[in-house]
Amino acid sequence: MRILSGIQPTGDKHLGNYFGAIMRWAEQQDEAECFYTIVDLHALTFPQEPAELRRSTLDLAALLVASGIDPDRSALFVQSHVPEHPRLAWILECMTPYGDLRRMPQYREKSERQASFGVGLLTYPVLQAADILLYQPDTVPVGEDQRQHLELARDVAQRFNNRYGETFTVPVATVPQTAAKVMDLQDPSSRMSTSADSDAGVIRLLDPPDALRKKIRSAVTDSGREVVRSPDKAGVSNLIELFSAATGEPESEIESRYADTGYGPFKADLAEAVVELVTPIQTRFAELRADETELGEILAKGAMKAHAVAAQTLARAHENLGLVAPTQP
Ligand code: TYM
Fold it and tell me: Label partner for 32 (CA 20 to 30 A): which of 182, 231, 233, 324?
């Protein structure tokens, strides 16, 4: 079984990224051959400060290793190190209907917020399809918000296979059962996001323990005191999911433990569970981040593994399309 997934380097990563993706990526290394990519080319859909992009790419590499991605077992690589990604993306762009891209929810949301933007914002999901299809993965572990992008990747693969013969595996999205959509602690009707207007509702993996405790203590709940999941208790339901994701305990057990306590003790214990989870990650992050040479070597090794697979898939796609292969001198 083979797995691929990706994550953008911009913005400090939060518990949504961790429970929705990174933690699952680490778990799946025992079961599958894994490819995990830091999608720096995707980040270019919005203007980036070069020094900041460089820093955040290396930060994310260190954070992923610190979170348990093992570079000896998995290919951990930077998207721009493997030139097959934009090469396949162009080919797929030529066969993706413009209307399909214009209708993508994330495009509509993001384009509405900008006075002007580059074409890459529209073609973003095609580059994502290329990221995926190059590695012929069976599954793609992602959070809930990526479902439509995965659907598009499946459509693109099927269209290509029907027209030019079997070329790509049609991948399946795997979305976790718990915490597939972690909500903002201050606005539980919005997804926790790196680009949130306020930082108060976003728990970053690298937040100092005290900041993190404070954010959980001030999380929006409601005027009641019952720790139960319910559609009209979005804030509390989100905290219960976070508790369950952080400790592995079933949500029903958490509900019964805090049935009579009110929100205070529940939030305090949740904060401690999250501190316990992130502390070893933060320690390991600091060690890894201090050695850029080693980080560079990890990423170079990952890119080599990735390139070997990606080049084969692209060659097959070229051949099936009728593009003439260059003669070896
Ligand atoms: P990105 O960088 O926004 O997010 C990385 C992963 O984190 C998940 N995630 C969440 N899960 C639960 N709750 C949340 N609040 C939350 N916020 C983010 C995302 O679902 C994702 O799994 N387009 C992708 C990156 C990408 C990619 C790919 C993913 C590029 N190529 C190929 C998979 C395969 C993105 O922007 O993810």
Answer: 182
d(CA 139, CA 84): 20
Which residue, by CA, sits nearest to atom 22 of ligand 1? 142
Average pLDDT over residues 213-226: 95
User: Residue 127 and residue 133: Cα distance in Å, rounded?
Assistant: 10
Ligand 1 centre from 204 Cα, in Å? Answer: 15
Shortest-distance atom of ligand 1 to CA 146: 20
Judged against a pLDDT cut of 90, whether residue 229 lies above it is answered with: yes
Residue with structure tokens 């209907």? 97
Spatial contact of 315 and 325, defined as CB atoms under 8 Å apart: yes
CA atoms within 13 A on the CB side of 192: 31
CA of 170 relative to ligand 1 center, distance in Å? 19
SS3 83: coil
pLDDT in tens, 132-166: 999 999 999 999 999 999 999 999 999 999 999 99
The rounded distance, in Å, linking the Cα atoms of 263 and 238 is 13
* HSE (side-chain half, CA atoms, 13 Å) at 262: 3
H or E element, residue 1: none
Output the DSSP codes for 123-156: HHHHHHHHHHHTT--SEEE--GGGHHHHHHHHHH
